[in-house]
Amino acid sequence: MPCAFSMISGRRVEQEKVTDALPRFGRVDLTADPPPVPEGLRFPMWLKPALSYSSELVFGVEDEEEFRKAAAEIRDGIARVGRPFEHVLDRVDLPPEMHGVGGQVCLAEEPLTGIQVAVEGYVHQGEVTVYGTLDSIDYPGSPCFLRHQYPSALPPDVVARLHDVTRRVMTRIGFDSATFSVEYFYDPGTQQVSLLEINPRHSQSHAELFQYVDGVPNHHCMIAFALGTDPAMPHRQGEYAMAAKWYYRWFTDGAVRAVPSPEDIARIEREIPGVRVHVIPEAGQRLSGLSQQDSYSYEVAHIFTGGNDEEDLRRKFDRCVAALGLAIDEPGEGPHA
């Protein structure tokens, strides 16, 4: 599922010049009523702002009715991120194909299948360095992330292909002196690699994972750029062989009746080695009032785990969920109904 800060459609134009590992895509005319489906695309497809955060206003659509409904919601909310970005566009030299496009752009893209994976790295003095590859695993039957897991479990030859595409694309777009995270899908059945999006920054969601496995958070690289020092990351010098960021989600609206206290969270982190917990809602808050949520669920806690293997990570996550004591009244139930 598309998550984080998607680059504007001009990036797709540049990507096409160095790789065919791309989905079919088209721009949606939000000024039309109703907006037409872009030529050459068929249902199902994804609709999303060209600039978005945490999958906000990102929709999977199966037919024209869902397409129109999603386009209307995107039209109503796209300015929150798109309008400020237009102030940035006013200050840069754009390629001819991007003149007049602006920051409030909606894209439709064909769906991608397989394993979602992220490649993190940086560009220093024109040289692209990749320092990590992570898997993103969804909840079963859902497009929502269950966890990010580092390092990737993909075969080494597939990881090498991802790194090659990443280096070619980041070189093509002229990126330099900063970190990045590029998201892909890999389909084991077809062996197809497809580039989903480029994030022009490292992912803060991955910071603890790199610290657990490599010994420092990925913030290290950007801080090194700021200080003018070597941005190179250490490798496998952390306390754990694997790490994961888990998204504990609720898939219906509700009112939060009870959350763990800071003392409860500190106790859980002491009792379960290699665990950090961040609870998102407050007691009495309605989930639909949370900001920056995706279109299909509500994040109620982020749980970071470091362990010896995947089973160790899962066991620690399950223990945390049981210990948190989060209580949420479903709509129509409890004192907050």
Automatic annotation (TrEMBL):
Record-annotated ATP-grasp domain positions: 12-227
A Pfam family matched in the record: ATP-grasp_4
Alphabetically ordered keywords of this record: ATP-binding, Ligase, Nucleotide-binding
Entry-linked SUPFAM superfamilies: Glutathione synthetase ATP-binding domain-like (SSF56059)
InterPro entries: ATP-dep_AA_Ligase, ATP-grasp
Top-level lineage group: Bacteria
PANTHER family, per database record: ATP-GRASP ENZYME FSQD (PTHR43585:SF2), FUMIPYRROLE BIOSYNTHESIS PROTEIN C (PTHR43585)
Designated name of the protein: Biotin carboxylase
